[in-house]
# Entry
Amino acid sequence: MRKYVFLAMIAVIAAMPDFAAAQTKKGSNGGPVVTSQGHPIEFVRKGLDIVFYVGDDDGSPLSTKDMRGRATIQDGGKTATVPLTPASPNMMSGKLQAELSPKAIIVFSASLHGHSLAARYTAE
# Structure
Protein backbone atom coordinates (compact mmCIF):
# COMPACT_ATOMS: atom_id res chain seq x y z
CA MET A 1 0.00 0.00 0.00
CA ARG A 2 2.81 2.38 0.92
CA LYS A 3 4.41 1.81 -2.48
CA TYR A 4 1.23 2.79 -4.32
CA VAL A 5 0.77 5.94 -2.24
CA PHE A 6 4.35 6.97 -3.02
CA LEU A 7 3.94 6.29 -6.75
CA ALA A 8 0.66 8.24 -6.82
CA MET A 9 2.35 11.14 -5.03
CA ILE A 10 5.20 11.18 -7.57
CA ALA A 11 2.73 11.08 -10.48
CA VAL A 12 0.72 13.99 -9.08
CA ILE A 13 3.83 16.06 -8.35
CA ALA A 14 5.31 15.39 -11.78
CA ALA A 15 2.08 16.52 -13.46
CA MET A 16 1.88 19.81 -11.56
CA PRO A 17 2.74 22.75 -13.86
CA ASP A 18 4.43 24.80 -11.13
CA PHE A 19 6.39 21.87 -9.74
CA ALA A 20 9.80 23.38 -9.16
CA ALA A 21 10.96 25.70 -11.90
CA ALA A 22 11.48 24.54 -15.45
CA GLN A 23 14.96 23.27 -16.26
CA THR A 24 15.92 26.11 -18.55
CA LYS A 25 19.46 26.95 -17.51
CA LYS A 26 22.69 25.01 -17.17
CA GLY A 27 24.65 24.94 -13.94
CA SER A 28 28.36 25.30 -13.34
CA ASN A 29 28.77 21.51 -13.67
CA GLY A 30 27.01 21.39 -17.04
CA GLY A 31 23.67 19.98 -15.89
CA PRO A 32 20.17 21.43 -15.91
CA VAL A 33 19.18 23.50 -12.89
CA VAL A 34 15.75 23.47 -11.26
CA THR A 35 14.85 25.78 -8.40
CA SER A 36 12.86 24.28 -5.53
CA GLN A 37 11.69 26.58 -2.74
CA GLY A 38 14.43 29.03 -3.68
CA HIS A 39 17.18 26.39 -3.76
CA PRO A 40 18.92 25.76 -7.11
CA ILE A 41 19.44 22.03 -7.69
CA GLU A 42 21.64 20.89 -10.57
CA PHE A 43 21.38 17.36 -11.99
CA VAL A 44 24.49 15.77 -13.52
CA ARG A 45 24.73 12.25 -14.91
CA LYS A 46 28.07 10.53 -15.54
CA GLY A 47 27.46 7.03 -16.86
CA LEU A 48 25.58 5.21 -14.11
CA ASP A 49 26.43 7.81 -11.46
CA ILE A 50 23.93 10.59 -10.77
CA VAL A 51 24.76 13.69 -8.75
CA PHE A 52 22.56 16.53 -7.54
CA TYR A 53 24.36 19.74 -6.56
CA VAL A 54 22.24 21.59 -3.99
CA GLY A 55 22.52 25.35 -3.51
CA ASP A 56 21.30 27.55 -0.70
CA ASP A 57 18.65 30.17 -1.41
CA ASP A 58 21.42 32.73 -2.04
CA GLY A 59 23.08 30.43 -4.62
CA SER A 60 26.00 29.36 -2.41
CA PRO A 61 26.63 25.62 -1.87
CA LEU A 62 24.29 24.11 0.74
CA SER A 63 25.86 21.50 3.02
CA THR A 64 24.18 18.14 2.48
CA LYS A 65 25.83 16.50 5.50
CA ASP A 66 22.54 15.65 7.27
CA MET A 67 20.35 15.55 4.16
CA ARG A 68 18.30 12.46 3.30
CA GLY A 69 17.16 11.93 -0.26
CA ARG A 70 16.26 9.73 -3.17
CA ALA A 71 15.78 9.91 -6.89
CA THR A 72 12.73 8.29 -8.45
CA ILE A 73 13.32 7.27 -12.05
CA GLN A 74 10.50 6.64 -14.51
CA ASP A 75 11.96 5.08 -17.63
CA GLY A 76 10.37 2.85 -20.25
CA GLY A 77 7.24 2.23 -18.18
CA LYS A 78 9.24 1.16 -15.13
CA THR A 79 9.84 3.04 -11.88
CA ALA A 80 12.98 2.67 -9.79
CA THR A 81 14.13 4.39 -6.62
CA VAL A 82 17.79 5.30 -6.16
CA PRO A 83 18.87 6.18 -2.60
CA LEU A 84 21.09 9.25 -2.49
CA THR A 85 23.97 9.77 -0.11
CA PRO A 86 25.44 13.12 0.91
CA ALA A 87 28.91 14.03 -0.29
CA SER A 88 30.94 17.10 0.57
CA PRO A 89 30.40 19.95 0.07
CA ASN A 90 26.89 20.13 -1.49
CA MET A 91 26.25 16.89 -3.38
CA MET A 92 23.72 14.09 -3.15
CA SER A 93 24.81 11.11 -5.23
CA GLY A 94 23.57 7.67 -6.22
CA LYS A 95 24.13 4.86 -8.70
CA LEU A 96 21.72 3.76 -11.42
CA GLN A 97 21.14 0.09 -12.26
CA ALA A 98 21.07 0.84 -16.02
CA GLU A 99 21.61 3.72 -18.43
CA LEU A 100 18.76 6.19 -18.75
CA SER A 101 16.94 6.39 -22.05
CA PRO A 102 16.16 9.77 -23.60
CA LYS A 103 13.03 11.31 -22.07
CA ALA A 104 13.36 9.35 -18.80
CA ILE A 105 11.95 11.35 -15.88
CA ILE A 106 14.06 11.87 -12.79
CA VAL A 107 12.42 13.21 -9.62
CA PHE A 108 14.74 14.37 -6.84
CA SER A 109 13.30 14.52 -3.33
CA ALA A 110 15.19 15.32 -0.15
CA SER A 111 14.74 16.69 3.31
CA LEU A 112 17.00 18.62 5.64
CA HIS A 113 15.95 19.82 9.11
CA GLY A 114 12.26 19.40 8.25
CA HIS A 115 12.65 21.35 4.99
CA SER A 116 11.60 19.38 1.89
CA LEU A 117 13.01 19.86 -1.59
CA ALA A 118 11.76 18.32 -4.83
CA ALA A 119 12.80 18.79 -8.45
CA ARG A 120 11.87 17.11 -11.74
CA TYR A 121 14.22 16.55 -14.67
CA THR A 122 13.96 14.93 -18.09
CA ALA A 123 16.97 12.97 -19.35
CA GLU A 124 18.57 14.26 -22.52
The first strand starts at residue 25 and ends at 26. The first helix runs from residue 2 to 15. Confidence is low (pLDDT under 50) at residues 17-22. The beta strands are 25-26, 32-36, 39-46, 49-54, 68-75, 78-87, 91-95, 105-112, 115-122.
